[in-house]
Amino acid sequence: MLLRNREVKRTLILAVILCVLGAFATGTIVALYANNVLAISTLDMEMLTLLAATGVLVSGIFIVTVFMYATRQRYRDLARMAEKLDAALAGERSIGFCDMKEGELAILASELDKVITRLNLTVDELQTEKLALSDALADISHQLKTPLTSIALSTELMRKRLIERDDAPEILERVRLIQNLQYRVENLIAVLLKLARIDAGVIKLVKAPVLAEELIQKAYEPLAVAFDIADITFETDVQPGAQFDGDLTWSAEALENIIKNCMEYTPAGGHVRVQATEDVLACRIRIEDTGPGIAQADLPHIFERFYRASHDEQESSKVNPAGVGIGLSLSKSLVTAQGGTITAENVKDSSGSVCGAAFTFVFFKTVV
Q1: Beta carbons within 8 Å of 202's beta carbon, 6+ residues apart
Q2: What residue ranges in the chain does DSSP mark as E strands?
Q3: What mean pLDDT is predicted for residues 89-93?
Q4: d(Cα 244, Cα 321) in Å, to the nearest integer?
């Protein structure tokens, strides 16, 4: 490692040059003595030669030692700076470079200290903005609950009166549509609030063993009636003992959104199948349906917020209350917040035709 340093190379070259010059000087003295140019005794000549060689050797060793020591100290300082930078990247806030001595490394350390201080201030500002957004959405949600509740009570009263009169079927249908839209707005507000809290880091996810079988059951229970009404079969295939470390409640909500999405796009008589397996790397949960699948142009954007496929946009023109393209985004945020991944793809039969859509949750055992 030290030999890669430019200063060490120069030092070694200088030492070699000194040794060569010393040898040349010694050889010159010997030659002059041999030619009787220098009138000194043999003993004096030997001592002079030995002293010259020793001086050159000691000088070379001294120069090499000094530069090797200085370079070693430099590498130690650089290693300490690298450790502090790694700590800063890992989230450590109290990082200082003020312990460096004077010189170019001290200047570099001072500049790094300024950069990290600026980054910490930026992180604090972003966190403050996220918290402010979360609080604002919470306030908006709270303010909207009262009028939405009044609308819900009023429309329900109107629906009951129209049913009793039984003379205005068109108006009754419009009242039901208003109720569906009101339910859609309530869900939208709730999901936006959850997303804002996740982005702001307000939601604290629990890290505990989660059984895949329990997770699937918890996610399916709120949708059991909807599956019966839609005449869609729900199937499970869970490997015994399959589990992962995560938050049961939030994972169940993420899985519920995916199952609900698959149910909404599966025609009557179809089925939604959930399979859970565990291997040495991760716990994998795969959800498949027998719907029309996902268009290839929509696959890269399926988890984007408020993104809806082309057929969704056509349905939305009819004021379809099925959704606003945010449920999948919420699921992805909840899964990635736990160190997992979620992907979407189409299921194809033996002939290569699309016969459904598939979503895969992967909860890794070790996050690198």
Answers
A1: 131, 134
A2: 208-211, 233-238, 243-246, 271-278, 282-289, 341-348, 354-364
A3: 73
A4: 35
